[in-house]
Amino acid sequence: MKPLEQTPEYQALAASRSAIEAQSISALFADDPARFDEFSIDIDGLLLDYSKQPLTRDLRDQLLALAVARDVEGKRDAMLAGEAINASEGRSVLHTALRVPDGNDGWAGRAIAREVEQTRKAMLALAEAIRSGERTGATGKPIRHVINIGIGGSDLGPRLVLEALSPLADGPQVHFLANVDGVELEQAMAVCDPEATLVLVVSKSFGTVETMANAHEVMAWLRRRVPSDAVLEQQVLAITSNLDRVRELGLDPALALPMWDWVGGRYSLWSAVGFAILLGIGGQAFTALLAGAHAMDRHFAEAPLARNMPVMMALCAVLNGTVLGRRSQAVVPYTERLGKLSAYLQQLVMESNGKSVSVDGEPIAHPTSPVIWGQTGTPGQHAFFQALHQGSDVVPVDFIGVARAVAGEKGDPLELTANLFAQSQALMQGRHGEHLPAARLCPGNRPSNTLLLDALTPERLGALIALYEHRTFVEAAIWGINAFDQFGVELGKGLAADLKPLIADGSGLETVDASTAGLISRYRAWRRR
Ligand code: F6P
Prior knowledge:
- By secondary structure, this protein is of the alpha/beta class.
- Helix content is 47%, strand content 11%.
- It has 3 domains: 9-69 and 303-479, Rossmann fold (3-Layer(aba) Sandwich), CATH 3.40.50.10490; 95-280, Rossmann fold (3-Layer(aba) Sandwich), CATH 3.40.50; 494-527, no CATH class.
- It is built from 20 helices and 11 strands.
- A hairpin with a 2-residue loop joins strand 1 and strand 2 (46-49).
- The longest helix is centred in the middle third of the chain and has 28 residues, at 275-302.
- The mean pLDDT is 97.
- The protein binds 6-O-phosphono-beta-D-fructofuranose.
């Protein structure tokens, strides 16, 4: 595919950069009373308001022409049909197949749908047996705790979903163990009754060093504390696409829950990677989560580009991040239940699109993924909103709000919502006036989207996460990059393995750079104190 910057559609956008930056967003409302309706998309209790973006109708048409020129629809249809679009790994990309309802063949066909359905039924049955107390620990105690051992996509999605849907949690308490610093390990061991604890070892590769190290620690803890030879078989469950390595850990592959290589780690919470979710909130809520994502899949597959929520979000992101060079993007949900959303999106977006080589292996000559960051509102207003309003950088913001409480949240919805709406308004209109000293002026004209959910239900959460998955895909399609490999993470892992012996015994420091040698020396000296 032709490099983006060589397309006439992109060149026209780049040539308009100054005009776009000078465009008053507030003035667009003054000129067009129907702007909110025209620049918002509403599906099933999820509203995207992108009217506070610097888009005239002509500019939107230019962006849509870019999406057509980059064959977004063709690439989308190829993904949904199961073509090997992850070209560098020769794999399909079929996280959408994981949320096709039972009995429906989905886009990738009957064989895939039946295999997914079969695994999902096994997951649902196993989860129900555990939640009901029918399936116990090795000494007969019902399972009251789950330790999910995993990292990245084997951790962030389940953490996000279980926190977001915590009012629905009616199963075992789920503890997450990702890092190798021992903190979460100690915390879990301190509260979990080993005889009532199920351990999930979640790793698509079943080779991630942190996950394997934690698995060994927790399995040793179980063996020490549970008086039964069947403890591993009964209380440790492998979740992976690499069944060969399960045996190396001392587990029975036949008892493992499978994943597939056509599900990327950061797109996998809908698979057996989400088993902790299923244990925590039950089959009905998990199925509703899938249904919400499937509704977004259908919208993405069928809506015309101009009314397509992931497409319009992606076009606004490409406009801000690539055409206008705005290199970070904030995500600010106005509910603590989505407190883990920005961490989840950091992996989803930055591990997918943090690339600088095209699918054809050519260097990319323009910016790709922005830095994704954020915190909930209103606390973010007391942390970084000063920079958003008066800082030197224009940072596009995705605001996320929820209209109705799901379960008994007290708080002050009026205060929360007024702040949510006021912040995007303030970023747009700024504060001006000759009478004001310069230090009190806010430039305004700072773009934002607002995503409003009617309620934070499993369906809406599923749709919201799928929306960001598809936005990420569309951005990659426009840039011409592969969103589904992640070779960049291998270098650091390899160097870490090389450094371990130098740190352990202090030898070989002459083989590394002086900074690394100096750090190792000081670390070793302070460790000995
Ligand atoms: O960060 C690299 C990565 O491979 C992610 O893509 C993945 O989600 C994570 O590590 C964990 O990988 P695994 O599930 O294979 O343990």
